[in-house]
């Protein structure tokens, strides 16, 4: 499986954006990249080595954002029961996949549902 350069660029932008949020740290449980705040995952990034399709998984409580994300080509509720809690997996290699800026908005929305109030205040103060 080959990763498209465009999808990889989007993935790298989303990863950099997520890691730039207050208190964000990257960890590799299960050999996949996740970004956490306060010890809790707010975005699953998977792997960028071409062994699996590139995508991001975010938690969207806002109904409009959730519906918009699910309308993306190939998007689906996240597995392992996470979809019931608002998690959506958005593939990056599909034709018409969302742009990095929109993915960043969704990552921020996911961050805001997970992060403690003091870190959200820090983000809002930027």
TrEMBL record:
Organism of derivation: Streptomyces phaeofaciens
Matching InterPro entries: YjbR-like_sf, YjbR/MT2646/Rv2570-like
Source superkingdom: Bacteria
Protein name per its UniProtKB record: Uncharacterized protein
């Amino acid at each position: 499986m080959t990763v498209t350069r465009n999808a990889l660029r989007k993935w790298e932008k989303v990863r950099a954006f997520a890691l730039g949020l207050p208190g964000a740290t990257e960890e590799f449980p299960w050999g996949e990249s996740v970004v956490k705040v306060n010890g809790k995952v707010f975005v699953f990034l998977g792997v960028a080595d071409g062994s699996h399709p590139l995508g991001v998984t975010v938690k969207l409580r806002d109904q409009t954002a959730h519906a918009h994300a699910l309308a993306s080509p190939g998007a689906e509720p996240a597995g392992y029961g996470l979809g019931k809690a608002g998690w959506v997996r958005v593939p990056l290699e599909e034709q018409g996949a969302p742009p990095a800026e929109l993915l960043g908005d969704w990552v921020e929305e996911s961050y805001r549902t997970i992060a403690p109030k003091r870190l959200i205040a820090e983000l809002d103060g930027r």
